[in-house]
Design a protein that fits this description.
Blueprint: H1 2-16, H2 19-25, H3 28-37, E1 44-46, E2 51-54, E3 70-73, E4 78-81, E5 88-89, H4 91-103, H5 109-119, H6 121-124, H7 167-172, H8 176-181, E6 185-187, E7 192-198, E8 204-211, H9 214-220, E9 224-226, E10 228-229, E11 232-233, H10 249-255, E12 257-261, H11 264-274, E13 280-282, H12 290-300, E14 304-307, H13 319-335, E15 340-343, H14 362-370, E16 373-374
Parallel strand pairs: 12-13, 12-14, 14-15
Antiparallel strand pairs: 1-2, 2-3, 3-4, 4-5, 6-7, 7-8, 8-9, 10-11, 15-16
Helix pairs in contact: 4-5
Length: 376
Amino acid sequence: MIETLQYQDDELIFNDVKVRDIIESITMEDVKTFLESLGVDQIIMCPEKGYLICPTICHNPINEEASMKLYWYQDNKIFRCYTECNEAMSIFTLYQKFMDVSYGQHVEFYEAEDYVKKCLKHIVYSAPERHSSLEIDTSKYEFNANLPLLDEYPSTVMDCFVKYHHPLWLHEGIKPEVMDKFDIRFSIGQNKIVIPHYDLEGRLIGIRGRTLNPDEIKEFKGKYRPMQVGNIIYSHPLTFNLYGIHEHQEGIRTRRSAIIVEGEKSVLFDDGFYGDLSNTVACCGSSFNKYHVNLLTNYLGVNEITIAFDKEYEDWRSEKAKAYREKIEAACNKYKGFAQFSFIWDYDNLLEEKDSPFDKGQAVFEELYRNRVKVR
């Protein structure tokens, strides 16, 4: 009963805090926190001039180069894009644009409102005059210290999908027992491989689908999207979780190290290689952030993190490879105070461009891992 009342109190507070309240209370530091939660790592703070500058994520995907032409102004709490968009937008509208551009996902305004509220919970929970009758333990909402508690979906929704080892993934080398361990399913109606995402405690927080429809891949410019059942889209903010963190937590704790990859498939390959000693997790994108690092170091005791992103170059001597390497090194340097960082770099052309370090099998991965670059 206590948990039910607490849940109802939380819902009451979230519903009561209006968009205007958040916009009026938001600070430049809040905007920085919000942008970092989306994976933005280039942020210029200019408090003396009253604005903040970041890449144009309103029309450039998060994993692509973008000009530093998106400004947030302290006086009117508005973002302004000075290139392609050439328009002003609120923090909520920017989130809608970001999700559409980076993930091909349409987000309703109320969904954007929910995300911002969860991201900036200290604003939501800093109005005791509105809720003086409620006794709330706000310690669990200290955003900068802890990960936010993501919404949980009922696990029974997975019963909508069949247990089926799709030949595509079997052919690529993902073992049937690994698919069972990660509860990989299949949607016959949507023709998608179904990938549930769980948090550290094993709560179902999202479901992604790997579409097998060429038209859909072309339309949404990608193979992976949140699954929809009825009117519900089972999405979640990828920023605050790592795929495989629940299933691989014992291996991570035992080895006190973790490997961060881009996609779910690499996590499944790793589990097929090492079983209970697997320590690979996926950020489901091409960038990691302070919440991912926090989850591994503070929650699981990791002291070494290896970045094993997909190969985005043909020749490691090329300018394209140089720029890609600098981006990875900059991200590692940003967080190296929390753990020893290293990254996979293919000097010997063991991989094709766009390959994950796991795609060519265990022997190739181990060769790449032995020769990983350590960030000093």
